[in-house]
Write a structure and sequence with these properties.
This protein has 110 residues and is α+β, with helices and mostly antiparallel strands. Helices cover 37% and strands 28% of the residues. It contains five helices and four strands, in the order βααββααβα. The protein has a four-stranded antiparallel β-sheet.
Length: 110
């Protein structure tokens, strides 16, 4: 059962994008992706909101998230959030082990 957390970082004057860029350039993102249990860690930029960055952060299970939250990496992330004065909205999703229903597959081109 994978857990995906969507985090919407919002700032002003392009600060959210600069935060994501520093997360990547400093190596923090690479380090997180190497953590045991991390399945996905990617930033996206909404076309209609230049002040928001979406992070899709997916983990194997809650234990993996708890270990990540207890790691020194979280101090660095918090430091950068504060540096860029970001505010967050968080959505959390648990994977559907059954997968995509056949009725929905009609609409998916793979």
């Amino acid at each position: 059962m994978a857990i995906t957390v969507n985090i919407y970082y919002r700032g002003a004057g392009g600060s959210a994008k600069r935060f994501a860029e520093e997360m990547v350039s400093s190596g923090v993102v690479s380090d997180i992706r190497r953590e045991e249990g991390n399945l996905r860690y990617e930033y996206f930029f909404p076309m209609d909101d230049k002040e928001t960055v979406l992070l899709i952060d997916s983990w194997k299970d809650q234990r993996s998230i708890d270990i990540h939250h207890g790691s020194p990496m979280m101090a660095r992330i918090t430091e950068l959030r504060e540096k860029y004065d970001l505010h967050m909205k968080v959505e959390r999703y648990v994977s559907d082990e059954a997968g995509v229903p056949a009725s929905d597959r009609t609409f998916i081109k793979e």
